[in-house]
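Much of what follows relies on a compact textual record of a protein's fold. With that in mind, consider the following protein and its fold in token form.
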Amino acid sequence: MPPAEINNMRIIFFINLLVLAVAASSQSIDTVRYSPFKQYLPQSQLDSFNLKKLEINKKGMYVLTSWGLGNLIYGSIATGLTHGEAQAFHASNTIWGTVNAVIGATGVLSSYQKKKAMNLSFGETALQQHGQEKLYLINGGLDVAYIAVGAVAWGFSDREAKQKTRNILSGGGKSFIMQGGGLLLFDWGMYIAHSQHAFRQLNRYIAGLSWAGDGIGYELMF
């Protein structure tokens, strides 16, 4: 591969790495240990709810890992067999696949740590659930941004520039659109799964929550 094309590939690699690092950092949730609530639910019911939430995450992380590995394997092979725009497209998909596979595999391993989901209080459960749903909504917003970045890059590929640069902008832009769209489906699917789980088992107990600057209040509704 000519030195100029190698340099161009490095540019799109670092752009992808920077954007994906933001996505990776957003995949973690700090465990909230502050619990101002009384136990409005039996501990056994809370444990059951949190274990089910863990199971939902595990299935989702298996999906993300599979998506990542698929892009990593196919992209790696296709990158060596193609040239120009197609090569840039597959190289970008390889990077996305690597990061998504790592994030997914880490999530799968974390989902087997069931002790962290046991003996959480009502307050901790409610706050973690709120954070879980918020996480996937934020990630969904990032996914839309990836699609927008891809569309802009693809649009700039029509402007006057070296053919190699146009190939990278076009191929990389299409990759961003595809990967952003795939992650958008994943994150919205996970949000719906978690919100439905909470709707069936938890929401009626937290309908009276009020969020204040110095704490959280609760009014139990009969």
Remarks:
- The chain is about 75% helix and 5% strand.
- The chain has one domain: 3-27+37-218.
